Amino acid sequence: MTERLYYADPYLTHFSATVLACRPERNGYHVLLDRSAFYPTSGGQPYDTGTLGGRQVLDVSVDKGGKIWHLVDGPLEPDSPVEGHVDWPRRFDHMQQHAGEHMLAGVIWHMLRGHTIGLHLGAEDSTIDVELPDGSMRVEEDVLLEIEERVNRQIQQDLPIRCWFPTPEELEAAPLRKRPAVSDHIRLIQVGDVECVACGGTHPSSSGQIGLLKILDARPSRGKMRVRFVCGMRAFRQFQKSHALLDQAARVLSTAMENLPGAVKALNDRLHEAERALRAQRLSLALQDAPALMENALTLAAGSRLIAHVAEGLDRDGLVELARYLTGQGFITLLANAKEEGAALLFSAPEGTPADMGRLLSACVKPLGGKGGGKPDFAQGAGPGEQVLKAAMAHLTA
Protein backbone atom coordinates (compact mmCIF):
# COMPACT_ATOMS: atom_id res chain seq x y z
CA MET A 1 0.00 0.00 0.00
CA THR A 2 1.30 3.44 -0.94
CA GLU A 3 1.79 5.90 1.92
CA ARG A 4 -0.62 8.75 1.20
CA LEU A 5 1.11 11.96 2.21
CA TYR A 6 -1.92 14.15 1.49
CA TYR A 7 -3.74 12.56 4.43
CA ALA A 8 -1.34 14.22 6.86
CA ASP A 9 -0.82 17.41 4.87
CA PRO A 10 -3.11 18.35 1.96
CA TYR A 11 -1.00 21.50 1.46
CA LEU A 12 2.11 19.44 0.62
CA THR A 13 3.12 20.14 -2.98
CA HIS A 14 6.74 18.87 -3.07
CA PHE A 15 7.90 15.48 -1.83
CA SER A 16 10.61 12.85 -2.28
CA ALA A 17 9.89 9.17 -2.90
CA THR A 18 11.36 5.95 -4.31
CA VAL A 19 10.19 4.36 -7.56
CA LEU A 20 9.04 0.81 -6.79
CA ALA A 21 7.86 -0.12 -10.30
CA CYS A 22 7.46 1.31 -13.78
CA ARG A 23 5.50 -0.44 -16.48
CA PRO A 24 4.72 0.75 -20.01
CA GLU A 25 1.12 1.46 -20.96
CA ARG A 26 -0.50 2.36 -24.28
CA ASN A 27 -0.60 6.07 -23.42
CA GLY A 28 2.37 6.41 -21.07
CA TYR A 29 4.01 4.67 -18.12
CA HIS A 30 2.47 3.58 -14.84
CA VAL A 31 4.73 4.38 -11.92
CA LEU A 32 4.38 3.03 -8.38
CA LEU A 33 6.02 4.90 -5.47
CA ASP A 34 6.55 4.01 -1.84
CA ARG A 35 4.90 7.32 -0.86
CA SER A 36 2.94 9.96 -2.75
CA ALA A 37 1.27 13.33 -2.30
CA PHE A 38 -0.72 12.90 -5.54
CA TYR A 39 -4.43 12.35 -4.94
CA PRO A 40 -5.91 9.51 -7.04
CA THR A 41 -9.38 9.79 -8.55
CA SER A 42 -11.83 8.59 -5.90
CA GLY A 43 -14.94 9.67 -4.02
CA GLY A 44 -16.01 11.98 -6.85
CA GLN A 45 -12.79 14.03 -6.62
CA PRO A 46 -10.49 13.98 -9.69
CA TYR A 47 -6.79 13.16 -9.59
CA ASP A 48 -3.96 15.62 -9.04
CA THR A 49 -1.58 16.61 -11.82
CA GLY A 50 1.99 17.91 -11.73
CA THR A 51 5.41 16.38 -12.38
CA LEU A 52 7.20 13.30 -11.17
CA GLY A 53 10.93 13.10 -11.82
CA GLY A 54 10.46 15.76 -14.49
CA ARG A 55 7.74 13.69 -16.19
CA GLN A 56 4.22 15.05 -16.60
CA VAL A 57 1.61 13.31 -14.44
CA LEU A 58 -1.33 12.52 -16.74
CA ASP A 59 -3.51 10.51 -14.37
CA VAL A 60 -3.46 9.04 -10.87
CA SER A 61 -5.43 5.97 -9.81
CA VAL A 62 -5.57 3.54 -6.90
CA ASP A 63 -5.97 -0.22 -7.18
CA LYS A 64 -7.85 -2.56 -4.85
CA GLY A 65 -4.71 -3.16 -2.83
CA GLY A 66 -4.30 0.51 -2.01
CA LYS A 67 -1.39 1.06 -4.40
CA ILE A 68 -1.38 4.45 -6.12
CA TRP A 69 -0.32 4.36 -9.77
CA HIS A 70 0.88 7.50 -11.54
CA LEU A 71 0.48 7.65 -15.31
CA VAL A 72 3.40 9.72 -16.61
CA ASP A 73 4.61 10.63 -20.10
CA GLY A 74 8.00 8.90 -19.84
CA PRO A 75 9.75 6.05 -18.01
CA LEU A 76 11.28 6.33 -14.53
CA GLU A 77 13.99 3.99 -13.28
CA PRO A 78 12.84 1.48 -10.60
CA ASP A 79 14.59 1.75 -7.19
CA SER A 80 15.64 5.32 -7.96
CA PRO A 81 14.78 8.41 -5.89
CA VAL A 82 12.32 10.82 -7.46
CA GLU A 83 10.92 14.27 -6.71
CA GLY A 84 7.23 14.99 -7.07
CA HIS A 85 5.57 18.37 -7.55
CA VAL A 86 1.79 18.69 -7.23
CA ASP A 87 -0.05 21.29 -9.32
CA TRP A 88 -1.22 23.49 -6.42
CA PRO A 89 -3.92 25.58 -8.16
CA ARG A 90 -5.68 22.38 -9.29
CA ARG A 91 -5.27 20.74 -5.87
CA PHE A 92 -6.57 23.78 -3.96
CA ASP A 93 -9.50 24.15 -6.35
CA HIS A 94 -10.50 20.56 -5.64
CA MET A 95 -10.07 21.17 -1.89
CA GLN A 96 -12.45 24.14 -2.09
CA GLN A 97 -15.07 22.28 -4.13
CA HIS A 98 -14.95 19.16 -1.95
CA ALA A 99 -15.17 21.00 1.37
CA GLY A 100 -17.94 23.20 -0.02
CA GLU A 101 -19.85 20.08 -1.02
CA HIS A 102 -19.67 18.76 2.54
CA MET A 103 -21.08 22.00 3.92
CA LEU A 104 -23.82 22.11 1.27
CA ALA A 105 -24.78 18.50 1.94
CA GLY A 106 -24.80 19.19 5.67
CA VAL A 107 -27.16 22.14 5.38
CA ILE A 108 -29.47 20.20 3.03
CA TRP A 109 -29.57 17.41 5.60
CA HIS A 110 -30.33 19.67 8.54
CA MET A 111 -32.93 21.73 6.65
CA LEU A 112 -34.64 19.10 4.51
CA ARG A 113 -33.38 15.76 5.79
CA GLY A 114 -32.13 15.26 2.25
CA HIS A 115 -29.66 12.39 1.86
CA THR A 116 -26.76 13.26 -0.47
CA ILE A 117 -25.63 10.47 -2.77
CA GLY A 118 -22.15 11.05 -4.13
CA LEU A 119 -20.23 13.98 -5.53
CA HIS A 120 -19.18 14.67 -9.10
CA LEU A 121 -16.50 17.32 -9.29
CA GLY A 122 -16.32 18.43 -12.92
CA ALA A 123 -13.90 20.70 -14.71
CA GLU A 124 -16.25 23.71 -14.50
CA ASP A 125 -18.84 22.89 -11.84
CA SER A 126 -19.81 20.19 -9.37
CA THR A 127 -22.99 18.27 -8.61
CA ILE A 128 -24.54 16.24 -5.84
CA ASP A 129 -27.66 14.09 -6.09
CA VAL A 130 -30.05 14.48 -3.17
CA GLU A 131 -32.71 11.99 -2.13
CA LEU A 132 -35.46 13.93 -0.37
CA PRO A 133 -37.58 12.11 2.25
CA ASP A 134 -40.89 12.70 0.43
CA GLY A 135 -39.51 11.51 -2.90
CA SER A 136 -39.75 14.93 -4.51
CA MET A 137 -37.07 16.12 -6.92
CA ARG A 138 -37.51 19.89 -6.62
CA VAL A 139 -37.60 22.55 -3.93
CA GLU A 140 -38.83 26.13 -4.15
CA GLU A 141 -36.41 28.86 -5.19
CA ASP A 142 -36.62 30.55 -1.80
CA VAL A 143 -35.56 27.28 -0.14
CA LEU A 144 -32.49 27.06 -2.39
CA LEU A 145 -31.62 30.65 -1.53
CA GLU A 146 -31.88 29.90 2.19
CA ILE A 147 -29.66 26.82 1.80
CA GLU A 148 -27.10 28.88 -0.09
CA GLU A 149 -27.15 31.67 2.49
CA ARG A 150 -26.73 29.27 5.42
CA VAL A 151 -23.74 27.60 3.77
CA ASN A 152 -22.05 30.92 3.07
CA ARG A 153 -22.66 32.17 6.60
CA GLN A 154 -20.94 29.05 7.89
CA ILE A 155 -18.07 29.56 5.44
CA GLN A 156 -17.62 33.13 6.69
CA GLN A 157 -17.35 31.88 10.28
CA ASP A 158 -14.02 30.31 9.23
CA LEU A 159 -14.88 27.09 11.06
CA PRO A 160 -12.02 24.66 11.68
CA ILE A 161 -11.91 21.62 9.38
CA ARG A 162 -10.42 18.50 10.89
CA CYS A 163 -9.61 15.31 8.95
CA TRP A 164 -8.42 12.23 10.85
CA PHE A 165 -8.61 8.47 11.34
CA PRO A 166 -10.68 8.08 14.51
CA THR A 167 -10.34 5.48 17.21
CA PRO A 168 -13.35 3.16 17.59
CA GLU A 169 -14.43 5.25 20.56
CA GLU A 170 -14.13 8.52 18.60
CA LEU A 171 -16.05 7.02 15.70
CA GLU A 172 -18.84 5.91 17.99
CA ALA A 173 -19.11 9.36 19.54
CA ALA A 174 -18.79 11.36 16.29
CA PRO A 175 -21.92 13.37 15.26
CA LEU A 176 -22.03 11.71 11.83
CA ARG A 177 -24.51 12.93 9.24
CA LYS A 178 -24.55 9.40 7.82
CA ARG A 179 -22.86 6.12 8.64
CA PRO A 180 -19.65 5.26 6.75
CA ALA A 181 -19.94 3.04 3.69
CA VAL A 182 -16.88 1.04 4.79
CA SER A 183 -16.08 -0.75 8.03
CA ASP A 184 -12.32 -0.24 8.27
CA HIS A 185 -9.67 2.42 7.56
CA ILE A 186 -12.36 5.06 8.12
CA ARG A 187 -11.33 8.69 7.81
CA LEU A 188 -13.57 11.49 9.02
CA ILE A 189 -13.96 15.15 8.09
CA GLN A 190 -15.56 17.49 10.61
CA VAL A 191 -16.38 21.15 9.93
CA GLY A 192 -16.89 22.95 13.22
CA ASP A 193 -20.07 21.54 14.70
CA VAL A 194 -22.10 21.76 11.46
CA GLU A 195 -20.86 18.76 9.45
CA CYS A 196 -19.23 15.40 10.13
CA VAL A 197 -18.97 12.51 7.69
CA ALA A 198 -16.53 9.88 6.44
CA CYS A 199 -14.35 11.07 3.55
CA GLY A 200 -10.92 10.33 2.08
CA GLY A 201 -10.59 13.53 0.05
CA THR A 202 -8.47 16.64 0.46
CA HIS A 203 -9.86 19.71 2.22
CA PRO A 204 -8.62 23.08 3.50
CA SER A 205 -7.96 23.53 7.20
CA SER A 206 -10.83 25.99 7.71
CA SER A 207 -14.12 26.84 6.01
CA GLY A 208 -13.06 30.43 5.28
CA GLN A 209 -10.64 29.14 2.65
CA ILE A 210 -13.60 27.86 0.62
CA GLY A 211 -14.34 31.53 0.00
CA LEU A 212 -17.84 31.31 -1.45
CA LEU A 213 -20.42 28.76 -2.60
CA LYS A 214 -22.95 29.47 -5.33
CA ILE A 215 -25.80 27.12 -6.25
CA LEU A 216 -26.24 27.30 -10.01
CA ASP A 217 -29.40 25.20 -10.28
CA ALA A 218 -31.30 22.24 -8.83
CA ARG A 219 -33.33 19.98 -11.09
CA PRO A 220 -34.67 16.41 -11.29
CA SER A 221 -32.22 13.72 -12.39
CA ARG A 222 -32.73 9.95 -12.24
CA GLY A 223 -35.29 10.17 -9.47
CA LYS A 224 -33.19 12.53 -7.33
CA MET A 225 -32.66 16.30 -7.07
CA ARG A 226 -29.35 17.18 -8.72
CA VAL A 227 -27.78 20.32 -7.25
CA ARG A 228 -25.12 22.04 -9.37
CA PHE A 229 -22.74 24.42 -7.62
CA VAL A 230 -19.33 26.12 -7.64
CA CYS A 231 -17.00 27.19 -4.84
CA GLY A 232 -13.98 29.42 -4.30
CA MET A 233 -12.37 30.89 -7.40
CA ARG A 234 -14.93 29.11 -9.56
CA ALA A 235 -17.69 31.04 -7.80
CA PHE A 236 -15.70 34.26 -8.17
CA ARG A 237 -15.24 33.67 -11.91
CA GLN A 238 -18.94 32.85 -12.21
CA PHE A 239 -19.70 36.24 -10.65
CA GLN A 240 -17.26 37.98 -13.00
CA LYS A 241 -18.81 36.30 -16.03
CA SER A 242 -22.39 37.02 -14.96
CA HIS A 243 -21.59 40.63 -14.12
CA ALA A 244 -19.90 41.17 -17.50
CA LEU A 245 -22.87 39.67 -19.37
CA LEU A 246 -25.37 41.76 -17.40
CA ASP A 247 -23.32 44.90 -18.00
CA GLN A 248 -23.14 44.16 -21.71
CA ALA A 249 -26.89 43.54 -21.91
CA ALA A 250 -27.61 46.74 -19.97
CA ARG A 251 -25.43 48.74 -22.36
CA VAL A 252 -27.22 47.30 -25.39
CA LEU A 253 -30.60 48.24 -23.89
CA SER A 254 -29.33 51.61 -22.62
CA THR A 255 -30.40 50.96 -19.06
CA ALA A 256 -28.93 50.18 -15.64
CA MET A 257 -28.37 46.56 -14.65
CA GLU A 258 -31.04 46.73 -11.94
CA ASN A 259 -33.57 47.79 -14.60
CA LEU A 260 -32.77 44.89 -16.94
CA PRO A 261 -35.78 42.67 -16.03
CA GLY A 262 -38.25 45.44 -16.84
CA ALA A 263 -36.38 46.46 -20.00
CA VAL A 264 -36.23 42.87 -21.26
CA LYS A 265 -39.93 42.33 -20.54
CA ALA A 266 -40.84 45.51 -22.42
CA LEU A 267 -38.66 44.46 -25.35
CA ASN A 268 -40.19 40.99 -25.32
CA ASP A 269 -43.71 42.41 -25.28
CA ARG A 270 -42.91 44.63 -28.27
CA LEU A 271 -41.39 41.67 -30.11
CA HIS A 272 -44.48 39.51 -29.53
CA GLU A 273 -46.74 42.32 -30.70
CA ALA A 274 -44.64 42.79 -33.84
CA GLU A 275 -44.73 39.04 -34.49
CA ARG A 276 -48.51 38.98 -34.12
CA ALA A 277 -48.84 41.89 -36.51
CA LEU A 278 -46.51 40.23 -39.02
CA ARG A 279 -48.44 36.95 -38.84
CA ALA A 280 -51.71 38.78 -39.36
CA GLN A 281 -50.28 40.62 -42.36
CA ARG A 282 -48.94 37.43 -43.94
CA LEU A 283 -52.26 35.65 -43.38
CA SER A 284 -54.12 38.57 -44.90
CA LEU A 285 -51.93 38.38 -47.98
CA ALA A 286 -52.40 34.61 -48.19
CA LEU A 287 -56.17 34.94 -47.96
CA GLN A 288 -56.02 37.49 -50.78
CA ASP A 289 -54.61 34.67 -52.91
CA ALA A 290 -57.38 32.27 -51.86
CA PRO A 291 -59.79 33.15 -54.74
CA ALA A 292 -57.07 32.41 -57.32
CA LEU A 293 -56.16 29.16 -55.54
CA MET A 294 -59.79 28.05 -55.55
CA GLU A 295 -60.25 29.03 -59.19
CA ASN A 296 -57.23 26.99 -60.26
CA ALA A 297 -57.98 23.97 -58.05
CA LEU A 298 -57.76 20.50 -59.59
CA THR A 299 -60.92 18.40 -59.87
CA LEU A 300 -60.37 14.79 -58.80
CA ALA A 301 -62.12 11.76 -60.29
CA ALA A 302 -64.50 11.54 -57.35
CA GLY A 303 -65.49 15.15 -57.89
CA SER A 304 -63.49 16.60 -54.99
CA ARG A 305 -61.49 19.78 -55.54
CA LEU A 306 -57.79 19.84 -54.64
CA ILE A 307 -55.49 22.75 -53.77
CA ALA A 308 -51.74 22.17 -53.32
CA HIS A 309 -49.82 25.31 -52.49
CA VAL A 310 -46.49 26.49 -51.03
CA ALA A 311 -47.41 29.51 -48.90
CA GLU A 312 -43.90 30.82 -48.27
CA GLY A 313 -43.62 33.11 -45.26
CA LEU A 314 -46.56 31.72 -43.30
CA ASP A 315 -45.85 30.09 -39.96
CA ARG A 316 -47.66 26.96 -38.84
CA ASP A 317 -50.52 28.95 -37.29
CA GLY A 318 -50.94 30.82 -40.56
CA LEU A 319 -51.12 27.54 -42.49
CA VAL A 320 -53.85 26.35 -40.12
CA GLU A 321 -55.90 29.50 -40.71
CA LEU A 322 -55.48 29.33 -44.48
CA ALA A 323 -56.34 25.62 -44.52
CA ARG A 324 -59.38 26.21 -42.32
CA TYR A 325 -60.67 28.83 -44.76
CA LEU A 326 -60.07 26.73 -47.91
CA THR A 327 -61.41 23.53 -46.38
CA GLY A 328 -64.47 25.45 -45.25
CA GLN A 329 -65.08 26.25 -48.92
CA GLY A 330 -65.06 22.51 -49.67
CA PHE A 331 -61.48 22.03 -50.90
CA ILE A 332 -58.94 19.32 -50.03
CA THR A 333 -55.96 21.44 -49.03
CA LEU A 334 -52.27 20.47 -49.12
CA LEU A 335 -50.05 23.28 -47.78
CA ALA A 336 -46.37 23.86 -47.06
CA ASN A 337 -44.66 27.05 -45.92
CA ALA A 338 -41.39 26.45 -47.81
CA LYS A 339 -40.13 24.38 -50.74
CA GLU A 340 -37.02 22.97 -49.12
CA GLU A 341 -36.26 20.61 -46.23
CA GLY A 342 -37.80 21.47 -42.86
CA ALA A 343 -40.97 23.04 -44.24
CA ALA A 344 -44.10 22.92 -42.10
CA LEU A 345 -46.75 20.73 -43.77
CA LEU A 346 -50.50 20.75 -43.31
CA PHE A 347 -53.08 18.52 -45.03
CA SER A 348 -56.80 19.05 -44.43
CA ALA A 349 -60.03 17.88 -46.05
CA PRO A 350 -63.79 18.48 -45.69
CA GLU A 351 -65.78 15.93 -43.72
CA GLY A 352 -66.68 12.89 -45.80
CA THR A 353 -63.64 13.07 -48.10
CA PRO A 354 -62.59 9.50 -49.02
CA ALA A 355 -58.85 10.22 -48.67
CA ASP A 356 -57.32 9.92 -45.19
CA MET A 357 -55.09 12.99 -44.65
CA GLY A 358 -53.12 11.43 -41.77
CA ARG A 359 -52.21 8.34 -43.74
CA LEU A 360 -51.56 10.37 -46.89
CA LEU A 361 -49.11 12.73 -45.18
CA SER A 362 -47.31 9.90 -43.40
CA ALA A 363 -46.96 7.87 -46.60
CA CYS A 364 -45.59 10.85 -48.56
CA VAL A 365 -43.27 12.48 -46.04
CA LYS A 366 -41.50 9.54 -44.37
CA PRO A 367 -39.78 8.20 -47.53
CA LEU A 368 -38.38 11.71 -48.00
CA GLY A 369 -36.88 11.83 -44.49
CA GLY A 370 -39.61 13.93 -42.89
CA LYS A 371 -42.26 13.16 -40.32
CA GLY A 372 -45.95 13.69 -39.89
CA GLY A 373 -49.40 12.24 -39.47
CA GLY A 374 -52.76 12.95 -37.94
CA LYS A 375 -56.47 12.36 -38.33
CA PRO A 376 -58.42 11.58 -41.53
CA ASP A 377 -59.47 15.23 -41.87
CA PHE A 378 -56.37 17.00 -40.53
CA ALA A 379 -52.65 16.19 -40.44
CA GLN A 380 -49.40 18.07 -39.76
CA GLY A 381 -45.72 17.35 -40.28
CA ALA A 382 -42.37 18.62 -41.52
CA GLY A 383 -40.20 17.76 -44.51
CA PRO A 384 -39.18 18.91 -48.00
CA GLY A 385 -42.30 20.91 -48.85
CA GLU A 386 -42.37 20.85 -52.65
CA GLN A 387 -41.48 17.15 -52.91
CA VAL A 388 -44.10 16.11 -50.37
CA LEU A 389 -46.84 18.11 -52.10
CA LYS A 390 -45.95 16.58 -55.48
CA ALA A 391 -46.03 13.07 -54.00
CA ALA A 392 -49.42 13.71 -52.36
CA MET A 393 -50.87 15.16 -55.56
CA ALA A 394 -49.63 12.15 -57.51
CA HIS A 395 -51.32 9.85 -55.03
CA LEU A 396 -54.65 11.70 -55.12
CA THR A 397 -54.74 12.10 -58.90
CA ALA A 398 -53.67 8.53 -59.73
Describe this structure in words.
By secondary structure, this protein is of the alpha+beta class. Helices cover 36% and strands 29% of the residues. The longest helix has 36 residues. The termini are far apart.
Counting DSSP E segments of at least 2 residues, the number of strands comes to 21
End-to-end separation in angstroms reads 81 Å
Strand fraction band? 25-35%
Main beta sheet strand tally, sense and closure:
6 strands, antiparallel, barrel
Look at the structure and give the mean pLDDT: 93
The parts where pLDDT drops under 50 for at least 5 residues are none
Q: Secondary-structure element sequence?
A: EHEEEEEEEHEEHEHEEEEHHEEHEEHEEH
Helical element count?
9
For the biggest β-sheet, the strand order reads: 2-3-7-6-5-8
CATH architecture name of the largest domain: 2-Layer Sandwich
Q: In the residues, how many domains can be counted?
A: 3
Helix-residue proportion: 25-40%
Structural class, please? Answer: alpha+beta
CATH topology of the largest domain: the name is Threonyl-tRNA Synthetase, Chain A, domain 2
Overall outline: elongated
What is the rounded Rg? 33 Å
Under CATH at level 1, the class of the largest domain stands as: Alpha Beta
- The CATH homologous superfamily of the largest domain corresponds to Threonyl-trna Synthetase, Chain A, domain 2
